[in-house]
Amino acid sequence: METIVEQLDLPSPELAAAWNAIKIPGTVRERLLAQSVLAFQLRQKFSFEVIPVHGLILLSGRPGTGKTTLARGLASKVSSALKGQKTKFAQIDPHSLTNSSLGRSQKEVTKLFQQVIPEYADGNPCIVLLDEVETLAPDRQRMSLEANPVDAHRATDAALAGLDLLTRKHRNVLLVATTNFPKAVDRALMSRADWIENIGEPGPEARTEIINEVLEQLATVWPHVVDLKRHVSSFTAASEGLDGRRLRKAIATAAGISVETASDLNKLKKEHVLATLKTFLQTQVTEEAA
Ligand SMILES: Nc1ncnc2c1ncn2[C@@H]1O[C@H](COP(=O)(O)OP(=O)(O)OP(=O)(O)O)[C@@H](O)[C@H]1O
Ligand SMILES: [Mg+2]
User: Fold this and answer.
1) For residues 78 and 29, what is the distance between their CA atoms, to the nearest angstrom?
2) Which residue's CA is the nearest one to ligand 1's atom 18?
3) Over 70: is that where the pLDDT of 289 sits?
């Protein structure tokens, strides 16, 4: 299995679109970008001993809150801010390092930080997405020695050591990590993050934007759907607590309430959308209780 699942030259239109797809408060957006640009600046001008910045930004939050999408968008934004420098992007799948026998994963993890990333960056500014980082550096304190052989500990040790070495030697690499399970991430990795952003469920403004966006998209094919925009405030009120992924899905699949509406989305009514949102919220609550 390939460790790098995607590689791109930046800025990329696809990644720039990802940045806009996620509706979050402007303050959060600005802070993420500022922290990332700052990490590049400081690391290119000072040694780690003087300014101990690792070049690691962590996005934490519940499933479906847009972390992966946002991290990809951030990469493109950072590259635009670094004006004129050729910048690269790589997305790492940490699962590819642990599928092999545990003994090998330690070796693979070391290789990722000491060889795969530096070779790919090749001296250029490079933004590396470590998606679902709890797989790469699981919390050693949660591992029981019986259930998890010593090798699993060693793989986390290797991730931390590899990160430290990369940090010192390759000042042009910025790591953006995501997790929907921060308790499962090793604390020593969390401690190395220069900035941790907790991404929450979308607030009312964000929900309104998401709902309008999905309705407008549907209306490009079924023009009457646009009439539903009159009820967006009801939809916003009825969707409190849904994550961005569930909300997009709820609006998009509301027509699944009957074969008639599914066949012609022009027949989609306010009540259908409200009923679907209610069902989505109920199933979400049930999942949480489970
Ligand atoms: N705040 C938001 N605004 C708009 N869309 C959102 C938002 N949050 C999530 N989405 C949508 O939900 C989908 C899932 O997003 P993404 O995969 O980035 O979430 P994630 O936080 O990485 O989830 P997971 O923890 O399950 O990996 C995307 O289509 C994204 O556009
Ligand atoms: Mg994700």
Assistant:
1) 12
2) 66
3) no
